[in-house]
Amino acid sequence: MGFQGRKTVAGVDGAKGKWVVALFDGQDLRMSVEPDVQAVLAATRWCDVVGVDMPLSLPESGYRVSELEAKSFLGPARSSIFHTPVRAVLDTQTYEDACAVSRRITGKAISKQTWYLMSSIRQWQDVSFAPERVVEVHPECSFRHMAPDTSFVSKKSARGIGQRLSALSTWLDPVSVHDAMASLPVEPAADDALDAVAAAWSAWRFGRGKHRYFGTSDGVDRIVA
Length: 225
Known about the structure:
The protein has 225 residues and is of the alpha/beta class. Helix content is 39%, strand content 15%. It has nine helices and seven strands, in the order E-E-E-H-E-H-H-H-H-E-H-H-H-H-E-E. Strands 3-2-1-4-5 form a five-stranded mixed beta sheet, with helices on both faces.
């Protein structure tokens, strides 16, 4: 039957200018690396829900409520969420200009980490998608929701990777995760691949109405877990 004939979800995570895509249909897990958002949308066109680890809504001023609520949920890991810049920052060409625009509107500059995400944020702002099919997720929220008793450490560490694999094993056969990751090109980091699978977990829950959300219940300002 294949992925085109079964209910399928996807998780998407940025990986050094490209995108890791994890497809899951309830039985099989497959992963790929796509060069841009248009390719991601093509690769996930059969999916019922696509979870994306990237801001899909931008504030006009201030901070998004979804991010503030997600930060509160994460507690000590709150720094893993970078505040989404205000929409006007998208039109800037340099970090200095971006900071100036942000200061004028919010009173604060944007971080360098946020600036490095601008190209990826712009890609999603430049395409059209159904907000009830393509939803924003944050993998650290997903992991902490699927394994609430785990004290997660850095996803860059061996222990952190092991913790995340263990958490995913409550949903997937861990061998399927290993095999899917082994099929990827050499470039993506392990944590990017695991984040994509976690994003697929949140998409799976969203498609069944079992998700938790931060912010609004619709796509105006929502992070799904």
